[in-house]
Amino acid sequence: xxxxRLGCIADDYTGATDLCSMLVRSGRRVIQCFGVPALDNxxxxxxxxxxxxxxxxxxxxxxxxxxQSLSALRFLQSWGSDRYFFKYCSTFDSTEQGNIGPVADAxxxxxxxHRLLFCPAxxxxxxxxxxxxxxxxxxxxxESGMRNxxxxxxxxSNLVRVLQAQTSxxxxxxxxxxxxxxxxxxxxxxxxxxxxxxxxxxxxxxxxPLLTGGSAIARYWADAAxxxxxxxxxxxxxxxxxxxxxxxxxxxxxxxxxxxVAEFEKSHxxxxxxxxxxxxxxxxxxxxxxxxxxxxxxxxEHPQAVLISSAENxxxxxxxxxxxxxxxxxxxxxxxxxxxxxGLREQGITRLIxxxxxxxxxxxxxxxxxxxxxxxxxxxxxxxxxSIDEPAISLALKSGNFGGKRFFFDALETSx
Length: 416
Hints:
Blueprint: E1 6-10, H1 13-25, E2 30-34, E3 50-54, H2 62-79, E4 83-87, H3 100-111, E5 116-119, E6 127-130, E7 133-136, E8 139-140, H4 159-164, E9 171-174, E10 187-190, H5 195-204, E11 210-213, H6 216-224, E12 246-250, H7 255-265, E13 270-272, H8 281-297, E14 305-309, H9 314-324, H10 326-346, E15 351-355, H11 357-367, E16 371-379, E17 382-387, E18 394-398, H12 407-412
Parallel strand pairs: 1-3, 1-4, 2-3, 4-11, 5-10, 5-11, 9-10, 12-14, 12-15, 13-14, 15-18
Antiparallel strand pairs: 2-16, 6-7, 7-8, 16-17, 17-18
Helix pairs in contact: 1-6, 2-3, 5-6, 8-10, 9-10, 10-11
């Protein structure tokens, strides 16, 4: 029996585009909404095979994350979904209190589900799970760059322990090869070290109303669950927008993004924001906008591109934290990027590449983009997206840890 529609809830904006990209690979028509859409806007969504509601719920208080996620679930139910996917990061970003466990529990309770699988693995991007432990490029999560994450430092690779601290339900792990820590638990971390394992997980969960995980499992589960597939491919032709100026906003502190910024700086202008500066956010944004305008106007090559970074190195980030405090420094950084993104649109910029989940959420909110159509994939889990309203703006929203060293060049060379 074919399921008509897949409803997805993602806990941040870049994770949502990552998920959309995986579903588009399988030929499905996908719309990504930023926040829960107003009910009177549903006409534009009716031809989609899947809708992904992107929330900024990863790092907010658990009660708020639960409320927003349940609101998204109810919208998706009213839209006509009969299967649901809760997407979180493949590195299981969370605090000791949540929000993965509390949100998953609330969704399961709303849908009347007792047994729930958790499959964060994304082997194509080096995220694998073995015996319930998460590895990043073969390194235990607790020894990877995620141990220094400014909001959600991940210091334990044992996802059974991590999840157990967030839920009152019993947690264990399961291997698709028949090994199990405890087969009687109701919250199960599923092992997967390659895509064949993901396919096995998808078959195991083919009749489940709700699945949780990283984006990689979603497309296999959509196939196994017989989610409607319109067979719609993304456009691949070149457009005039491919040659339009592009600004890269890098707010991520990840090692991967810093490497990408350093590579880009070898041949393109890069501005390193000094968030520790005592100047107002408005003043720092105004300086950055003038720098962008000057930098783009003096370039002859096409496509023209410049980059603004807020995390040149760990010392710069630490200086901002000492000056403003951890949370205040993060909020100040995002307010600067919000002002910059609005100013860039006023300057006529219609292409933005944004690195970092929090920064991506800030930019989309500042630009008041309600929803996007999914375009060509730049790297695994990172597509171009284009706003459904006018004037259209194209965005590449990248999780800080995603992409290779030349990701920004790859994005510039890929048509939205």
